[in-house]
Every structure is written in C-alpha cells, then in structure tokens.
Design a protein that fits this description.
single chain; mainly beta; 4-stranded antiparallel β-sheet; 0% helix; globular
Length: 413
C-alpha cells in the first residue's frame, strides 16, 4: 500500500474539529467561534460555509434570545460525516443550547436546552439535562448531570427514554441493536477512596427500563471481576450478547486488578475471559467495525504506551502490538499514542503520537506496518491536538496535530 499526500489545509483561523463528509468527497472543518467550512478533498477549494449561530435555512425550532459567548462555543462532526453538533453557551451563566445540523441539507434536525453527545452508535444522539459548559471543556469530556433520552437523527424522532438510569452513573454505552445500554459511574479525578459500586456496570433493557444484569466483583470465582473503578466499556458486535470492560487499575492504591480488561456475558453477568496480558493502569477499548478484534489505548493521564494492543474479540488472545512510536529525540513517556482510528472496512489501523507527529498505518490482517510518515508539529504545546480519521470509504486518512494545519493522505494499493 502507498500513502500519498493529497491535501494540506492551513486555514486562517484555528481548527477545533474536522471530519469527512458521508460520501468521502469533501472535508468539514470547525473553527473557533464556530465557523464551519466544507472543502473539496481533490482541489482544496472551499465549497460552502455553515453558520451554527444562524441557520441558512428557516427552522421550525425557536432559539432562546440569549447573549451568546462565541469564544466558548464548541462543535464536532459526527464519525459518519452526516451531522454537526454545536454547543452554544450564553454569556452570563454558561447555560448551553444545543443544535444538530444535517451536513447534507444544512438544516437543523433537532435542538436541546442542555448538552448533547453523539452516541457510540451512528446516527443516534444523546440528550442530557446538564446545561453548564466549562470554559475549556471538550465535548467528548463533558459529563452530564443526568441523561434525558436518545434521538434517532436519520428518522428525526424520539428513540428511547434514559431518565431511568441512576443519577450517579455518568457514563454509558449503547448496544448495536439499540435495545440495551450499559451504565457506570465513571472515573472521577477528585475521588480519594473507591466510591460504592464504582467497580460495577449495570446493563439495562431500554424498552422495559429495567436492569437485566449487573457486573460486579465476586471473590469466589476464577475471574472475580474488577476491584478498581470502571474506566471504559463497550458492547461487542455479534450474535452473543457480550460486553468488554476496563478498570482504573490501582486507582486508589488499595485495590489491584489482576485482569483490568474483561469480556462478560451480560445475560448471565459472568466474566467469560480476560484480554491476555493486559495490565495497564487504564485503557480505552475500541472494536473493529467487523467485530473480530479489540484494540486498547492507554489513557492520557497515565504512563502511556507507545503502541496499540490488538486482541481477538472471540477469545481475548493477544494478536500483536503495533510498531512503537518511540524516538531517540524524546523520552519514552513523551512518545505515547494519542489517537487511533480504524478504517470502515476493518483493514487498516492508524496511530498517532502528537509530540513527534509520527503516523503509523498497520494492516490488521497480518500486523504489517504499511506506512510511517511525519506531519508538521507546532512548537507551541498549547496549539497541539490529535485528530485522526479515516474517510467512510476507507481510501483517505485525515491527520492534524496542530490547530493551524490539516493533512489528508490517500491510501492506494
């Protein structure tokens, strides 16, 4: 495979987020004060603009007459490339009003007096009741005071109520069939002792609003479960109902998980197996679209690994780890992987270290390092970010480690 530079954008204003359109022919960029622009990926020409503050098409939704704080506004492009979520805070209290736009028609699809998030399943929006947005908060990092409901963006209709989830649960994930949610308390940096049930995950039937199972620690079984706080969770693709969970290993010093990544049968609430040899402090877990592999990435506030670990999703067997991002110019702790992305066809895995600007593209079928190249890194650490996305057709890779520059590479066999 060859990786060819296709496009380099250096917009005049800093970029918050970027993503491909659903047809992979265009690139959307979100700039400070929420200037949203679409670019042709072949020529680099600007095609159009979207103003989240004032919709170009008349909307049935009435917006509040607030004094908007444009400097603190946030927006992001959905992974499928079809939607834009804009969080618009007002000046005095930081109360947030959310708007979701179609990036195909440029129309407003839905609004919310409060925060919203794109869920783990494409085309599903999570609406919450929490209305405050910190000045430097990232959308992905904002936690709700409580969840409201799920909204189907494609059908533009209410999907499921979420108010039944415990108020102490700040994190949840949605099953691929949209029938179940798994919820847990989430990692809280200010905690000094393990809160009650922070090491447990509950699975709920959304239609019945009832708990179907609870994954908890039991000493008297081969795989006891998690002693430390749950860090991440993910439903696995497939006929058998399974959930993978990771814990904040040794987060309070007293607990110590022997296996901090487990795969559970959520019908029986029994752990099936652990991910082989994984004993890191805290990891994010991701599944390939085909559901055959699991990928783990060290959390940013830990001693990060310079590679991604790949596991067989059916057995937990370790398959391989990607090529290391370590260099002789920087100490090992500065060479951790900041972002990973998997192509929609499950063929390629891209990893990025924002401190070095090095990108690796790995073949998932045989662990071959297909390409390794560098992108421009800003000398100003506050200007750095880690954007890494494949196009929906798996033919292009977007990379940005600076708010001032975006690169698009073409992947060719």
């Amino acid at each position: 495979m060859h990786v060819q530079q296709k496009l380099q954008l250096r917009p005049e204003t800093p970029v918050q987020d970027a993503g491909f359109s659903a047809d992979s022919q265009s690139l959307w960029t979100v700039h400070d004060e929420l200037h949203v622009r679409r670019w042709d990926t072949e020529t680099g020409a600007e095609q159009c603009r979207l103003d989240p503050w004032n919709s170009p098409i008349p909307s049935r939704f009435v917006s509040p007459a607030w004094d908007w704080d444009r400097r603190r506004a946030r927006a992001c492009v959905s992974a499928c490339g079809r939607y834009l979520l804009a969080l618009l805070p007002e000046t005095e209290h930081g109360t947030v009003f959310s708007r979701v736009f179609s990036l195909e028609s440029l129309e407003i699809i839905t609004v919310n007096y409060g925060l919203c998030w794109f869920s783990s399943q494409p085309g599903v929006l999570t609406k919450g009741h929490g209305k405050q947005l910190a000045a430097t908060a990232k959308i992905a990092d904002v936690e709700p005071s409580s969840f409201s409901h799920l909204h189907d963006l494609a059908a533009d209709q209410y999907l499921h109520e979420l108010a039944f989830l415990p108020q102490s649960h700040r994190r949840f994930c949605l099953s691929p069939d949209r029938r179940h949610v798994a919820s847990w308390q989430g990692w809280q940096e200010h905690n000094t002792i393990l809160p009650p049930r922070a090491n447990e995950v509950s699975v709920w039937d959304i239609a019945d609003q009832s708990r179907t199972s609870r994954f908890e620690f039991e000493q008297n079984r081969p795989l006891a479960g998690h002693q430390d706080a749950i860090f991440d969770a993910l439903f696995l693709v497939g006929e058998d109902p399974r959930l993978v969970t990771t814990s904040r290993k040794e987060s309070w010093g007293s607990a110590s998980d022997e296996h901090n990544a487990l795969v559970w049968d959520f019908a029986s609430a029994e752990p099936l197996f652990a991910l082989e040899g994984l004993c890191r402090s805290a990891v994010h877990v991701k599944s390939t679209p085909c559901g055959k592999m699991l990928l783990t990435l060290s959390a940013h506030d830990t001693i990060r690994e310079a590679f991604v670990r790949v596991f067989d999703a059916a057995s937990g067997r370790a398959l391989f780890q990607t090529a290391s991002h370590r260099t002789q110019q920087l100490p090992p702790y500065a060479c951790g992987v900041d972002a990973m992305a998997v192509s929609a066809d499950s063929r390629y895995l891209a990893t990025l270290c924002s401190n070095t600007g090095r990108v690796h593209v790995t073949a998932l079928d045989d662990a071959t390092l297909l390409a390794s190249y560098d992108v421009a890194v800003s000398d100003n650490e506050t200007d750095r970010q880690a954007l890494l996305r494949f196009s929906p057709d798996s033919s292009q890779l977007l990379v940005a480690v600076s708010h001032a520059c975006i690169e698009v590479r073409r992947l060719a066999d």
